[in-house]
Amino acid sequence: MSTAITRDYTPGFYEGDRPKVVTSRFEFEDSHTIDRYLATGGYDGLKKAIEMGPEKMAGEVKASTLLGRGGAGFPAGVKWGFTPQGVWPRYLVVNGDESEPGTYKDRLLMERDPHQLIEGCLIASYAAGLSQCFLYVRGEMPLAHERIATALDEAYAEGYVGKNIMGTDFSLDIVLHWGAGAYVVGEETALIESLEGERGMPRLKPPYFPAAVGLYGQPTIVNNVETLANLPFIASKGSDAYTAIGTETSPGTRMVAISGHVKRPGVYEIVNGTTTFRDIIYGDEFCQGIRDDNELKAFVPGGGSAPWFLPDQLDIPFEGKEAGMAGSMLGSGAVMVMDDTTDIPEAALTLVRFYAHESCGKCVPCREGGTWLLRILERVCAGHGTDADLDQILEVGQSICPGDMPHAASERLGLEATPFPYKMTTICFVGPSAYAPLHSALTLFRDEFDAKVVPAPKRISIPVAVAGS
Amino acid sequence: MSSDESNATEPVDATHDDAGHAEQGEEVAEQDVADDVEAAEEPAAEPDPNIVPVTLNGREIEAHKGELVIAAAERHDAYIPHFCYHPRMKSVGMCRQCLVEVDTGRGMQLQPSCMITVSPEMKIETESPTAKRAQEGMIELLLANHPLDCPVCDKGGECPLQDQAYSHGPGESRYVEEKRHFEKPIPISDLVLLDRERCILCDRCTRFADEVAGDKLIHFTQRGNQTQVMTFPDEPFASYFSGNTVQICPVGALTAEPYRFKARPWDLTAEESTCTTCSVGCRVVVQSSRDEILRYQGVDSDPVNHGWLCDRGRFDFEAVNSDLRLTDPLVKTEAGLTPTSWNAALNGAARLITDALAAGGPDSIGLLGGARGTNEDAFAWAQLADALGITYRDAQLGDGLPASILGLNRATIDEAASASTIVLLGPDIKEELPVLYLRLRDAAVEGNSTIVEISSVDTGLTRYAKHSLRHQPGLQADTVQRNSELLTGDDVVVVVGRGNLAESPDETMAALAAVLDANPNAKVLPALRRGNVVGALSVGMAPADDDHDGLATLRAAADGKLELLILLGADPLNDCPDTGLARRALAGARRVISIDTHRSESTQLADVVLAAAAYGEKSGTTTNIEGRVTVLADKVTTTGTARPDWMMAAELALMLDVDGDLVNVSSVDDVTAAIAAEVPAFADVTPAALVAERNGVLAGVVAGTLSDAVSAAGQRNSYDHRLVVGRKLYDRAIGTAMSHSIAKLAPGAAIHLHPLDIDALGASVGDDLQLIGAQATAILPVAANHAVPRGIAWAPFNQDGSVIETLIDATASVTDVKIEVI
To answer: Is A402's CB within 8 Å of B140's CB?
Structure first.
């Protein structure tokens, strides 16, 4: 019945015999049109929400324990409650600036089911009492932008967005904004700066907690695309139907983007909390194993900024707390798999280069430290490094992330896990993201780094003649 | 410690008031406890809600409510290193240098102390191993790409990065990579150069340009390690306040042309003074090396300038060192003006005065000026004039407003900047009193004040004004009357000055009267721009009546009624709007004594020229627009044999053997004391009080009434344009013209018309147009300017190549010109 669509320009999406919350329409060629959306229960959730009233709808979301999908995994319903009451206007900002290396699940949600996202925005704004919605789409996603723009036109024309939605006194405008291409704008306060027309640089929390002082200084809820895409399901089918999927602490499903050395990379909607990394990488309905049946060497569990996992961690479920205890994070839900042909220092260099390049330049540790790390690592990978350089990496890292760094356990090295999170001297996570994966690579694969360096020449101290001696 | 640092600590001083309150509060509390012995039921005194108890490095301290951790710590002798934090700007938490460990109940966490406000029971560790490691790490990272060119860097020796690298750095760099390279310094404006290699991207200059100056002309470009401060393409950082960015730069990235490579900080000696370039009265520190003034830096005076200066005030020290300074007194001989001894010159001057008195009596002598000098200079000369019976005297030359404005209910700058409504009558504050503009702009931007602007053309504050009412010259009072509902309220301050030199001051005075009619409680801040004009007028240089003011004096001279015209630092040919009158006056006065610092057109026409000590060379006091009297520094010895004006008056008094105290003064302090004794408004301004009060002493106001002024302007012929002549910050005034760095910034003469008016004339921008006035014809190139409404022609005053002044007739209420294409 279902025929997986494959187009050249979209990443692979593979469905399986699993519950579908956000990808239920992906099987249709015209899933992005309003006709298909309405024919498949579209905007029912909004109708239900308006029938329920805002308080009850917000209660449903709270009861569903819907976790934010942007990286922090904070319950969305609780987040909505942080906005001070009676302050007007208050905004919803949709974070569609998905740019974490390895992550491309929001892109599919925006390209293939824009109406679901729009409905999610409407339900969130209705339930949390928000007066306007800004949809920030990453600059490098022109198809997503085009489809959302078309969908918004359709939704406005059909009266789902705009004044007096569906004849009720609920009104909402959704403004579509196209990013200019900066990774850091995925950080919510930098995204707000960018929306305001400023240079995308993060603001410090406190005092700039968006829920209190956000866009244009007003209370603002910033939600990830996938988080909002879950709302139509929760509204139309109820929180019970939602929590029936997944585990108690991590209900529902999750979009996971897998890349790297697997046989079938792509996006999968998995059941939250129970699916293990082994399922994802080796499962038949998922990636079907490592390419050329090579051995797994390491994998990134949650986007480029996450510390790495080893085959030791394969049986950990894809669940935020468990991953945290094991020394990494799930972040934006991107798994990058490295087989035994991988040159670990080179792989780490690729990530460090990205984060050093994407530093906005605001915080010194990220701006200077990130590039310093890059320079050292470049030298090491080019074969000009010394063992002192590897120690220097850890020293520079201490200026970015003071204290213990999270890393995975390794039976091979006899290493216990250090749990997430780390401390940081920067405002946002870009700086630490340059260091955390490098640190875990260096910790777990020190031998590969050592193989690239030579011993540092001994520092010679020049004797100084002291008068009278 | 560098002046920047002393500047940075200033607001802490400013908060001493609160501390004072706190102490008082405690005393009151003790009193309460004493009372409680009788009324035993009373609970113990409530703790002061403005005091937040916190633990700083194990010590219990009392922070102020809402205070930043960094400020509270510094106030309690725990200095936290920082670069981006500046007490007069919003914190951004950019440099991460001020990380300290803070425990708000959730365990110790590294937090930037410039972004965290104190909360009760907060624990702060500024020197814990973790905090120290973070601070050292940050210094190491900042120095990674920072060139080690301290030996040739202007900032070396007063550099916060250098200082803090020593005090809070690791002492050694482990950075062995190639440093970041940029083209070494690039000019970002005519005055400021940027060295991007030295820049540590603290966001101070960019924040200043945006937040404080409102000239968002510099910003970050590129990202990551390549982030750099840059102007927009083809748009230089042409801000009137650009020099402040140089002062607050925590490294040597920004340097200013006038000081670049002139001195090393350790060779400079410094003394606090007050800028007298305009009448805002910004506190400055005058720095010199080898007896030459090399730099002014802003000092944070809470009631006045908050540490900021305008570029004209900051850089016009070059005029003090100018080659065109008068070094010796001159007397006219057959060979022209020739240097002579002071004895001969003063004798010559005394003889001219005696001759004039003999020939025409005291009414045949005119005394103009005093606004460029100190209170003491003006007072001494006014005393001499009093003793001789001279009634023709004025500190203004028809370029300001009648002195009666000083008798009104005067507002302070603080009151203006916190008023609910600020009414602007007249001049472009940004051009005339730049730092007052910063204060008023801040008031409007922060949303505390509403600005109502009533002027003929757009001004610098127009974009911050809630109501901008445009009027044709001559219709200001009418405009006020028709919009009187905007002027109501308890807390209204009128900032009033001379907006249009081609319009009679009566027009402004009539408008002011209309404002006070609509709101009798409104306070007035006189925006008279000349350095010490308020002081000079207050201590005796005000004319007794309109028939003896500056213009009347010049008219009397032009009519041949004056035997002697004494110019006390006055240059009528440049300062009087009606230059035709000034020229006739200098020709008509039989003899002229000029007391001046520089050679000027007017000194060239004098019979005796007395070389005066300039700013920075003489001590004394000055008075700003709000009546604040502050002390001036004599930082360097005078040029040549020049001496202060008061000394010449005292010597002439001796030579002329006049009655009064003037013959007994032997020091400037004697004159200051004499002012306090004899000028009622200055009774509190004693030398002792001036020493005690760092921010100066507010002189009182002798209540007076406004002279009746009625608008007398007729209707404009619709074929004509009505002329508005206003001032730009940079013009041909001595201080600017003699300072080569800023002299070149004067925009030059032109006639500005609305683009549609240019079209209507059939002209194009840059064409020479003929302006036909009632008394003369002038030719000027035309510039398009949207700030000028249709039907109005605007021209800057006193510019190079300026001829617009020849069209101004001081007796006319407005000036209409017919503009023709040649």
So the answer is: no
Helix (H) or strand (E) holding B481: helix B476-482
Between chains, do B137 and A372 touch, taking CB under 8 Å as contact?
no
Tell me how close the Cα of A384 comes to any Cα of chain B, in angstroms. 12
Tell me the C-alpha distance between A269 and A108, whole Å. 11
pLDDT in tens, B289-343: 999 999 999 999 999 999 999 999 999 999 999 999 999 999 999 999 999 999 9
The answer to whether the beta carbons of residues B427 and B726 sit under 8 Å apart is: yes
What topology does CATH give the domain B51-142?
Ubiquitin-like (UB roll) (3.10.20)
Cα B693 versus chain centre, distance: 20
Note whether B222 contacts A427, CB cutoff 8 Å.
no
What digits encode the pLDDT tens for the residues A44-70? 999 999 999 999 999 999 999 999 988
Hey, are the CB atoms on A204 and B138 less than 8 Å from each other? no
B426 near B500, Cβ under 8 Å? yes
Contact A359 B225 (CB under 8 A): yes
Residue A360 contacts B, CB cutoff 8 Å: yes
pTM listed for this prediction: 0.91
Q: Provide the b/e sequence for B759-778 (b: ≥16 CB within 10 Å).
A: eebebeeeeebebebeebeb
A358 touches chain B (CB under 8 A): yes
* Domain ranges within chain A, ordered by starting residue: 34-243, 253-341, 343-454
Asked if B134 lies within 8 A of A395 by C-beta distance, the reply is no
Our CA-based measurement puts residue B193 at a distance from the nearest CA of chain A, in whole angstroms, of 22
Fold that domain B330-400+533-617+637-663 belongs to in CATH: Rossmann fold (3.40.50)
Cβ pair A358:B223 closer than 8 A:
yes
- Judged against a pLDDT cut of 90, whether residue A86 lies above it is answered with no
So what's the architecture of A34-243 in CATH?
Answer: 3-Layer(aba) Sandwich (3.40)
B54 neighbors B118 (Cβ within 8 angstroms): yes
Q: What pLDDT is stored for residue B104 in this prediction?
A: 85
Q: Is A370 on the interface with B (CB under 8 A)?
A: yes
- Rounded to a whole number of angstroms, the distance from the CA of A137 to the nearest CA of chain B is 21
Q: Which residues of chain B are at the A interface, by a Cβ-Cβ cutoff of 8 Å?
A: 92-97, 99, 109-110, 112, 115-116, 130, 133-134, 137-138, 140-142, 144-145, 174-175, 177, 200-201, 203, 219-220, 222-227
- Contact (CB, 8 A) for B452 and B422: yes
Q: Do A364 and B110 touch (CB under 8 A)?
A: no
Are A364 and B99 inside 8 Å of each other by CB? no
Does the A343-454 domain belong in CATH 1.20.1440.230?
yes
Q: CATH class for domain B403-526?
A: alpha beta
SS3 (DSSP) at A175: strand
State whether residue A448 is helix, strand or coil. helix
Question: What would you report as the CA-atom Rg of chain A, rounded to the nearest whole angstrom?
Answer: 24
ipTM of the complex: 0.92
Which among B398, B626, B425, B410 has a CA at the least distance from the CA of B513? B425
Sheet strands side by side (includes B99-103): B59-64, B51-56, B123-125, B99-103, B108-112
Closest CB to B133 among A360, A398, A427: A398
Looking at domain A253-341, its CATH architecture is Roll (3.10)
Give the helix/strand (H/E) hosting B452.
strand B450-455
User: Is-cis flag, bond preceding A206, omega within 30?
Assistant: yes
Which pLDDT score, from 0 to 100, does residue A397 have? Answer: 96
- pLDDT band at B182, cuts 50/70/90? very high
In A, minimum Cα distance to B131 occurs at A402
Of B94, B109, B116, the CB nearest to A362: B94
- Are β-strands B123-125 and B108-112 bridged in parallel, bridged antiparallel, or unpaired? unpaired
Could you say which of B95, B140, B177 has the minimum Cβ distance to residue A399? Answer: B140
